[in-house]
Structure formats: C-alpha cells, structure tokens
Design brief:
By secondary structure, the protein is an alpha+beta fold. The protein is about 40% helix and about 25% strand.
Length: about 160
Amino acid sequence: MDLHPGEHILFSGHPSWRSTLALYIKGVVLTVVVGAIVWFAVGHGAGIGAAIAVFALVLLVGFIERLSTLYMVTDERLHIRRGILSRRTQETRIERVQNVNTDQSILQRILQIGIVDFDTAGTEDSDFTFRGVANPGDVVQAVDQARRDAVTRGVDAPARPEL
C-alpha cells in the first residue's frame, strides 16, 4: 500500500499464528492417518516419509495463509490485502468507519486473538473484517486514534441521509 504524503501507519500486521491453530491440529490428525495408512500398506520408512511430507505441507499452507493477508490501519485509511498470486484488496477511508466491533470466543480469549469487524458508511462490502489478529484491542485503539486525528484535522464522518 502506498501511503499518502503525511499519512502514518498506526497498526500493521498479519493474522496471528495462533489463528491457524485449528488448521495445524487438523493437519496433525491428517498426518497421523496418512502416515499410518502408508506404514501398513507400504512399509515403515514410507509411512514415516509420508507423514513428514504431509506435516510439512500443512505447515507451509498455514504459513502462506497467514502471510498472504495483511491488515493495516493508518491515520487516513483501513486496508486489507489478501492473496499471493491473485490479490484482493479492500480499503476504506477512516472517516467512513461508524462502528468497530470485536468478537472473541473463550478459546480465542485464551489464545489472545480475535476478530475486529468494521461497520462503514456507504459501503456495499459487508465483510470488512480483520480476522485472527493478536490483541484485537490494539486494533480498536489504533482506529480510535485515527478517528481522533481525523476530527483534529477537521475531517469527520459523512452526514447521514435523512429518512
């Protein structure tokens, strides 16, 4: 993301590795199953090799999934970039943010990760969400700081239409 002149990054990050924990647990189960099947069907060495290959693939998929998503909050914009080969980018101006909601299950609270959902004015894109971020309160504080900076600069949320 190219920053505008005078624009400052308040938060930048990827989903936490803890957010891919479910993928890793499923991967371990798959590793054991594949390793056992190959162990009994072909032999001990092949079973161990297959298990190592599956486990390495699971680790690689989790790593790529995590690093292919970037969340950024600046004093002017919210930005989400997903993908490596193909890219999907979402961006909105900070003055369009109306509500910031966090969601954490019990497990997510233990892992200190969560979901931060942004309600934005005049946007058709209903899924403007930072998923799996570590310490979601830090994201909320960054957006709050950006909103205060916008008010200080004289930029405020758009007026709501009369009903």
